[in-house]
C-alpha cells in the first residue's frame, strides 16, 4: 500500500470517529448548529471513501484504453467531493430555516460542546496532515480533502463559540443563525474545491514557479542543442506532463540528438516527481530564437 493510499484510508478512520463524536454532541444538545457540523462530517466520510477509490484507480498503470494512465481519477474525486459539500450545505440551510421558525432551548449544552471541541481538535490535526502530505505526495484528492477539513475546522470553531453565546444570552435564535452561516461557509468551500478540480481536468499548466524550474533544468542539461521552444506542461494527479521542441545542429547524428534528449529527461525526472516527457527534435533551420535558450 502506497503512502497516499495509507493516508486516504486514515481519512476514513478519522472521519468516522469525528462523525461519531459530532453526532453525539448533536444528540446531547439538539442544536441545529451542531447538527450542521455533524452533517459536514458525513460528507467527509463519503468523500474520504471516494478519494481512496480514486487514488487506487489513479495508481493503475497505463493500459490499451488509457495509454496516458489513470491520473485524472483524483480530479474526478475532488469534483464529487465539491458537489457533495454543496448538497450538504443546502440541506443545512433548510434545517436552519425551520430552526428560525421554531427556536428551541438546548439540552445539556456544555457537555455537548465539550464533545464537539474534542472532535474539532482531532479534525484540525488530521487536516494539517492531509494538506502537508498531500502537497508533498502531489495528490489533488488528499489536498482537496484537507482543504475541506480546514473549512470544517473553521466553521466548527464558529459554531462552538456561537452556541456558547446562545447559552449565555438565552437567545435560542442564535443556534439556527449559526447553522445558516456554517452552510454559507460550506457552500463557498465546495465551490472552491469544484473549480480547482476542474482546472486539473482542463489540463491547466503547472504553477509559474515550477514552470521556471523546468525551463532552467532544460537550459542547463541541453548542452549540444541550440534551443527549446513550444514548451507545454500539464498536471494530472501526481504526474506532470512536459513536452517541447528541441532544436539541434542540422548535421548532428540521430545518436547525438538522442543522447541530449536522454540527458534532459534524466535531469527533469530527478527534480520533477513522476515527470512524463515528450521531446520533438528539430534541425537548426526550425529555430524560433525564443523559448529556452541553451546555456
UniProtKB/TrEMBL annotation:
The chain crosses the membrane at residues 7-29, 41-61, 73-93, 113-131, 152-171. GO terms for biological process: intracellular zinc ion homeostasis. Pfam families: Cation_efflux, ZT_dimer. It is a multi-pass membrane protein. GO terms for molecular function: cadmium ion transmembrane transporter activity; ferrous iron transmembrane transporter activity; zinc efflux antiporter activity. GO terms for cellular component: plasma membrane. Residues 11-202 form the Cation efflux protein transmembrane domain. Gene3D superfamilies: Cation efflux protein transmembrane domain, Cation efflux protein, cytoplasmic domain. It is found in: Cell membrane. Keywords: Cell membrane, Membrane, Transmembrane, Transmembrane helix, Transport. Coiled coil: none annotated. SUPFAM superfamilies: Cation efflux protein cytoplasmic domain-like (SSF160240), Cation efflux protein transmembrane domain-like (SSF161111). Residues 207-283 form the Cation efflux protein cytoplasmic domain. InterPro entries: Cation_efflux, Cation_efflux_CTD, Cation_efflux_CTD_sf, Cation_efflux_TM, Cation_efflux_TMD_sf, CDF_Transporter. Belongs to the cation diffusion facilitator (CDF) transporter (TC 2.A.4) family. This is Protein p34. It comes from Marimonas arenosa.
Amino acid at each position: 500500500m502506497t503512502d497516499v493510499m495509507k493516508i486516504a484510508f486514515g481519512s476514513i478512520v478519522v472521519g468516522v470517529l469525528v462523525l461519531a463524536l459530532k453526532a453525539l454532541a448533536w444528540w446531547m444538545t439538539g442544536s441545529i448548529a451542531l447538527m450542521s457540523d455533524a452533517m459536514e462530517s458525513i460528507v467527509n466520510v463519503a468523500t474520504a471513501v471516494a478519494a481512496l477509490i480514486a487514488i487506487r484507480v489513479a495508481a493503475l498503470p497505463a493500459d490499451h484504453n488509457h495509454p496516458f494512465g489513470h491520473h485524472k481519477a483524483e480530479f474526478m474525486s475532488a469534483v464529487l467531493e465539491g458537489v457533495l459539500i454543496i448538497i450538504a450545505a443546502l440541506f443545512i440551510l433548510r434545517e436552519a430555516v425551520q430552526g428560525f421558525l421554531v427556536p428551541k432551548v438546548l439540552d445539556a449544552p456544555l457537555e455537548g460542546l465539550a464533545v464537539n471541541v474534542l472532535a474539532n481538535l482531532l479534525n484540525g490535526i488530521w487536516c494539517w496532515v492531509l494538506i502537508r502530505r498531500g502537497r508533498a505526495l502531489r495528490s489533488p484528492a488528499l489536498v482537496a480533502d484537507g482543504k475541506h477539513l480546514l473549512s470544517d475546522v473553521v466553521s466548527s470553531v464558529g459554531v462552538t463559540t456561537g452556541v456558547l453565546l446562545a447559552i449565555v444570552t438565552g437567545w435560542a435564535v442564535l443556534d439556527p443563525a449559526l447553522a445558516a452561516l456554517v452552510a454559507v461557509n460550506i457552500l463557498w468551500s465546495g465551490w472552491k474545491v469544484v473549480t480547482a478540480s476542474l482546472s486539473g481536468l482542463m489540463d491547466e499548466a503547472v504553477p509559474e514557479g515550477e514552470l521556471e524550474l523546468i525551463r532552467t533544468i532544460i537550459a542547463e542539461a541541453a548542452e549540444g542543442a541550440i534551443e527549446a521552444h513550444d514548451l507545454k506542461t500539464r498536471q494530472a494527479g501526481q504526474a506532470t506532463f512536459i513536452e517541447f521542441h528541441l532544436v539541434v545542429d542540422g548535421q548532428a547524428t540521430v545518436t547525438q540528438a538522442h543522447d541530449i534528449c536522454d540527458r534532459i529527461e534524466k535531469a527533469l525526472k530527478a527534480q520533477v516527481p513522476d515527470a512524463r516527457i515528450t521531446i520533438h527534435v528539430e534541425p537548426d533551420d526550425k529555430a524560433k530564437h525564443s523559448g529556452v535558450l541553451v546555456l
